[in-house]
């Protein structure tokens, strides 16, 4: 059986005030084209279909278009769960009708768990949908007062599933959680991943999923496996933060044989515009060729530059952020502290040239020096008066 595993589409995502809908459509068209070409038996979307509970109309329309293409035209069933960014009720709405058409979406945790049954030439494959839920919601749904953390919740949900686990079938779990090898605390893989819990109680032990032949996870934006190669994150299909700059985005092609042995291969998706860092002096950057990537610029100039974003956007029209690289960080100094330690004349000359478009004359420099010296002398006198 061949399955495409994807997650964290975050439709309706805003990055630095820019809606990513056009970029999302571009990569999802590639995803649909891969389905049309390779004809998988199913598609799994492991949560965070939307970026927020009430997504913009464009995001809703895009999801509708993509799912209609996959399910109705390509006749490929879709299995999806709600993520922490999704509205469970919104995704659950119309689930019975969608199920009849091959879209299986779980928004809420159910005590009476029933897997979705698929079959191939080797027998049955059971898909277990485990949507994201706060521990308090799981505690209520399962009637278990001992559930306090995300790890408790995951353990209780899996134990509930295992009560009816058919030993003759192969089993796939679909979840949205922060899973680590032993439930230990780890850093997020991206700045755009919203914490699931305050105080570090969000991590889930990978061992809870040991009885499934494959576990398809969402939430972390970098593709990787946890503990063993059958427990995997597909990662997001697109970069949503400069912290994801070095991520290779795509989806997983999962193949399962008759014994439940699994292999996973990553297929990359090409973004319409890359998201990356550009570093250099303003003078050099302005010589670059016109480029529409989403760039975060780090300037090496030590002197102030007026209206840096306007200048950068003459070369990079989709620039998202500009900052001056901190030269003082290695010594523990902040950028502001580094500027305070610079020669006042260097700062003045740079500022003057930016404003006037020409270098300060000797006479102007002399006037500035006199004013500065007078200011420093008055400041020193005031300090002495305070001491006395």
From TrEMBL:
Residues 271-355 form the Nuclease SbcCD subunit D C-terminal domain. NCBIfam families: sbcd. Pfam families: Metallophos, SbcD_C. PANTHER family: COMPONENT OF ATP-DEPENDENT DSDNA EXONUCLEASE, NUCLEASE SBCCD SUBUNIT D. Signal peptide: none annotated. Keywords: DNA recombination, DNA replication, Endonuclease, Exonuclease, Hydrolase, Nuclease. SbcCD cleaves DNA hairpin structures. These structures can inhibit DNA replication and are intermediates in certain DNA recombination reactions. The complex acts as a 3'->5' double strand exonuclease that can open hairpins. It also has a 5' single-strand endonuclease activity. It comes from the Bacteria. This is Nuclease SbcCD subunit D. GO terms for molecular function: exonuclease activity. Heterodimer of SbcC and SbcD. Belongs to the SbcD family. Residues 1-186 form the Calcineurin-like phosphoesterase domain.
């Amino acid at each position: 059986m061949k399955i495409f595993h994807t997650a964290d589409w975050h439709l309706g995502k805003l990055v630095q005030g820019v809606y990513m809908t056009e970029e999302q459509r571009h990569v999802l068209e590639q995803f649909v084209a891969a389905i049309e070409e390779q004809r998988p038996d199913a598609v799994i979307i492991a949560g965070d279909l939307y970026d927020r509970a009430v997504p913009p109309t464009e995001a809703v329309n895009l999801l509708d278009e993509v799912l209609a293409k996959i399910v109705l035209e390509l006749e490929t069933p879709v299995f999806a769960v709600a993520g922490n960014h999704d509205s469970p009720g919104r995704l659950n709405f119309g689930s019975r009708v969608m199920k009849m058409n091959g879209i299986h979406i779980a928004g809420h945790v159910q005590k009476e768990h029933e897997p979705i049954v698929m079959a191939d030439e080797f027998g049955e494959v059971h898909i277990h949908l485990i949507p994201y839920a706060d521990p308090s919601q799981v505690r209520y749904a399962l009637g278990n007062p001992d559930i306090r953390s995300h790890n408790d919740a995951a353990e209780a949900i899996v134990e509930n599933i295992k009560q009816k686990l058919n030993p003759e079938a192969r089993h796939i779990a679909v979840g949205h959680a922060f899973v680590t090898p032993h439930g230990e605390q780890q850093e997020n893989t991206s700045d755009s991943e919203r914490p699931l819990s305050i105080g570090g109680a969000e991590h889930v032990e990978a061992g809870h999923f040991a009885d499934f032949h494959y576990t398809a996870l969402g939430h972390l934006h970098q593709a990787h496996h946890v503990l063993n190669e059958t427990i995997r994150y597909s990662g997001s299909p697109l970069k949503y933060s400069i912290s994801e700059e070095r991520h290779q985005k795509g989806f997983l092609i999962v193949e399962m044989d008759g014994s439940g042995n699994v292999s996973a291969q990553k297929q990359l998706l090409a973004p319409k515009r890359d998201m990356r860092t550009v570093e250099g002096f303003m003078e050099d950057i302005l010589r670059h060729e016109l480029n529409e990537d989403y760039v975060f610029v780090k300037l090496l100039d030590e002197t102030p530059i007026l209206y840096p974003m306007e200048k950068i956007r003459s070369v990079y029209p989709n620039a998202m952020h500009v900052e001056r690289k901190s030269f003082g960080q290695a010594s523990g100094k902040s950028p502001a502290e580094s500027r305070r330690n610079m020669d006042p004349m260097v700062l003045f000359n740079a500022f003057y040239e930016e404003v006037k478009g020409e270098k300060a004359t000797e006479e102007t420099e002399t006037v500035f020096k006199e004013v500065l010296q007078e200011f420093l002398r008055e400041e020193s006198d005031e300090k002495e008066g305070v001491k006395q």
